[in-house]
Specification:
There is one protein chain. The chain is α+β, with helices and mostly antiparallel strands and about 425 residues long. The chain is built from eleven helices and 16 strands. Strands 6, 7, 8, 9, 10 and 11 form a six-stranded antiparallel β-sheet that branches. Strands 2-1-5-4-3 form a five-stranded mixed β-sheet, with no helix packed on it. Strands 14-13-12-15-16 form a five-stranded mixed β-sheet. Strand 6 (about 60-80) and strand 7 (about 85-105) form a beta hairpin. The radius of gyration is 27 Å and the shape is elongated. Mean pLDDT is about 90; it is low at about 270-280.
């Protein structure tokens, strides 16, 4: 958009502004700063991509636009666990509706007036990363007297402010959305994305360093001397909701729960969903290259809030047995990509409760559709035949004449964390 100053000599161009910022900064009635001089926006012409401004003289107020934003996940390209959260990278569709603007006094920031705006929604696709938090974090923050939305909102602001330290960008090149219940995530999420349509690679550069970014964000928030939040920590100069709500203590606590992987309270109301009853069928015969597969984890179900959060348990050690070579293969967490490729190369993957548990753990690391793997799940087959589930120990005792010699909790003692 071209910004043109209207005066006695007609119009003259004084600058330009990107489409992603024009609604927030150049709506009719806005005070637009050009070279530190205030200009009053008289008209925003969306068809001609032109903004008309005048010099109002000295003004004792500034304007701030208020917007409502929504985000739609179009594609997930990368994913990994981080503490009590999942981190994902992908393509997003952002919808922003600028609904009002405020006039506030420069000294003191007192609210003077509030005015409605009638602007069409702005939609664009971009690159972004997002943090999917375990729902138990919200309950824990609330139980400690914190405001969860204020906490994730503050996390969003503080993290975005530090982006220029980790990628070649300006603070205003990126934006974010905090949502306590995202319909696609089915839980709370914090989205951080490139502000330009199509994206320019900022989020992609941040993704592998996100843990470092969040550590620094925690240091900034906890190290700030203010009591309830300020522009040096969790306030943002371009917040579409007027920096409301914000809760500095909840921001610090949320970051701690994510980064330190603190055990979460077990949510007994959210048990592991029962899989559909599989049809009764003949057990498939092992073919050349078939694999037997099992995973041991770094964290227990009690640590991540229950069995429904298997995606937060993290791979400790995965073991694959090749039925043809009769050799065992081991994979640690840093080789999960190799493990996934190995499974997809096999004509059949067999195991006990692998659809619900083992694949559930792996889904935190891959965007590939594990449900498409040719799988024989022993537990599913038994349930389909008998109508109820049996433990692996019970099954081993009655078929092999000996029970299990260990259990998954032992892996927590073996130092795979």
């Amino acid at each position: 958009f071209t910004i043109r100053q209207v005066g006695q000599q007609g119009k003259r161009a004084v600058g330009t502004i990107g489409a992603s910022r024009v609604y927030a900064e150049c709506h009719a009635g806005a005070i637009y700063l050009h070279r530190a001089e205030p200009h009053l926006v008289r008209n925003l012409d969306l068809e001609r991509h032109e903004v008309e401004v005048t010099r109002p003289g000295r003004v004792d107020y500034y304007t701030r636009a208020l917007a409502e934003k929504q985000t739609e996940i179009l594609e997930v390209t990368r994913t990994r666990p981080l503490g009590n959260a999942l981190v994902r990278l992908g393509r997003l569709r952002i919808t922003s509706r600028t609904t009002h603007y405020e006039k506030r006094r420069i000294f003191g920031q007192d609210l003077l007036t509030r005015h409605p705006l009638d602007l069409p929604p702005m939609r664009f696709e971009t690159q972004g990363l997002w943090i999917e938090l375990a729902p138990e974090i919200e309950k824990l923050i609330a139980s400690e007297g914190g405001h969860f939305m204020g906490g994730i909102h503050g996390l969003e602001h503080a993290a975005l402010a530090l982006f220029p330290l980790f990628a070649l960008c300006d603070r205003f090149d990126v934006a974010g959305i905090s949502i306590p219940q995202h319909p696609q995530v089915r839980g709370p999420a914090v989205f951080l994305y490139d502000g330009e349509p199509g994206g320019v690679g900022i989020s992609r550069a941040i993704y592998p360093r996100l843990e470092e970014l969040l550590e620094m964000t925690h240091e900034v928030v906890t190290g700030c001397d203010c009591s309830d939040g300020c522009p040096s920590c969790i306030h943002s100069p371009r917040c579409g909701s007027g920096n409301r709500p914000l809760d500095k203590r909840a921001t610090s606590r949320t970051l701690e729960l994510i980064l330190r992987a603190e055990p979460l309270p077990v949510n007994t109301a959210c048990g592991s969903p029962a899989p559909p009853d599989p049809p009764l069928r003949e057990a498939p015969r092992s073919s050349p290259g078939s694999l037997i597969f099992d995973i041991e984890t770094q964290r227990s179900a009690d640590e991540v809030g229950g069995w429904h959060n298997t995606h937060l348990m993290r791979v400790g050690l995965a073991v694959v047995y090749d039925c043809t070579t009769r050799e065992f293969e081991t994979y640690m967490e840093d080789r999960v990509d190799d493990l996934v490729e190995r499974l997809f190369s096999a004509p059949l993957v067999a195991g006990f409760n692998i659809r619900r548990f083992d694949y559930g753990v792996l889904r935190a690391y891959t965007t590939r559709k594990l449900e498409e793997l040719p799988t024989f799940d022993v537990l599913e087959d038994i349930q389909g035949r008998l109508g109820h589930r049996l433990s692996l120990d019970h099954l081993a005792r009655h078929t092999l004449g000996r029970g299990k010699s260990g259990d998954g909790l032992e892996s927590l003692e073996w130092g795979f964390r």
